Amino acid sequence: MMRLRASPWLRLFISRSTSLVPTMLVGVLFTSRLDQFDEWLNVLQSLALPFALIPTLKLAQSSHVMSEFAVGPRWRAFGWLAAAVIIALNVYLLLPLIVDLASYGVAAACMALALLGMYLLFVYILVVSKVE
């Protein structure tokens, strides 16, 4: 996958913080509006899902890692199709939010588009990286 040279505890801290810190921020910011909190929590979980699903798919299909237990071509195709649908739905659900942000100004819309681009770039890096 990605060649990060860090101690195991630091990698664990970074990976857990990547998913927990945004969720905790939403929890702190939306304590008075639980329905919006629930909605934002679902959005964050939906956005975080590909970052768990893609490495799992890559490891499960790797004969180097799984040897004879690697998944076959049907399950591999099903897994990648599911991942593609999840990512496409995330983008589809984020586009109206970006359009709404355009009403706050061009800078807000550009920032949202930049964040969407970073999200898609990171997903792309996960997909093309090699399993060793």
Structural write-up:
The chain has 132 residues and is an all-alpha fold. The chain has helices spanning 8-29, 34-61, 63-66, 73-101, 106-128. The model has no long low-confidence stretch (mean pLDDT 83).
Shape assignment: globular
Average residue-wise pLDDT: 83
Q: What's the SSE pattern?
A: HHHHH
Total beta strands? 0
Could you list the spans in which at least 5 consecutive residues all have pLDDT below 50? none
- Estimate percent helicity: over 70%
Proportion in β-strands = under 5%
The N- and C-terminal alpha carbons lie at a distance of 7 Å
The whole-angstrom Rg is 17 Å
Structure annotation, total helices: 5
Instruction: State the secondary-structure class.
Output: mainly alpha
Largest sheet: none
